[in-house]
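Late entry, iron/sulfur cluster complex.
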Amino acid sequence: MPHRLVIIGEERFADPVAQIVHLVSDEEANNFLNNLEESSYAFVLACLMDRQIKAERAWIIPFKVCESLQIFNIQDLYLIPKSEIHEVFVRKRLHRFNDKMSDIFFNGIKDIIEKYDGDAKKIWSNSPSSALVVYRFLEFKGSGIKISTMAANILARQFRIQFSDYYSVDISPDTHIVRVLKRTGIVSKDANKNMIIFKARELNPEFPGIIDYSCWEIGRKWCHSRNPDCENCLINNSCDKLI
Ligand code: SF4
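Prediction complete; structure with ligand written out below:
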């Protein structure tokens, strides 16, 4: 019998919600990142920027670069020399590591044009396996396993992009998720993020990230850091309540 968190997660995933994914607070930039049909390159470049700075600051970088250059298409971005991309990064203080990250940004544009004909959604179109999507992200300069699995996770779980399987879609152990998994007793109080990721794989190997939905909802609605509302919680009967 699957764990209750898996069952709830499956119910939420089956619910076909087409909604704007919140990636950054600026509405225009968020719409730009959400437009996977016309500006899928922005999503990929934003993923590549998401390291060693706050996510919000990283995710807005493609929009800021395009805005600064007044170029909102990848074909014209491809014509911009590396030095000019670097100049924008430095002038606008886009990242903590502007030299390195402007180089990664420049190479990301080059790869999208040269490997995917300028259409980044080819990375995930035609229902590839989740492992192939992760692999394709790993091929980008500057993208390690953390960025690559995060990208596949957001595409599958938030944008509901169809993959042929979800084995490589892990949970993202943010604060709500960690709190719920520890209080339920599913993982020990001192479990680290890797332990949490592997426990989720054990609970539902076909789609480890499915419990993200249930844990996130429970963490937000009932399992608050202080004064958790166990009485009304969805998993009241299957939780150890290790508060
Ligand atoms: S039953 Fe209580 S401790 Fe358990 S997840 Fe729900 S709110 Fe948290």
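The chain has a mean pLDDT of 94. Will revisit in the morning.
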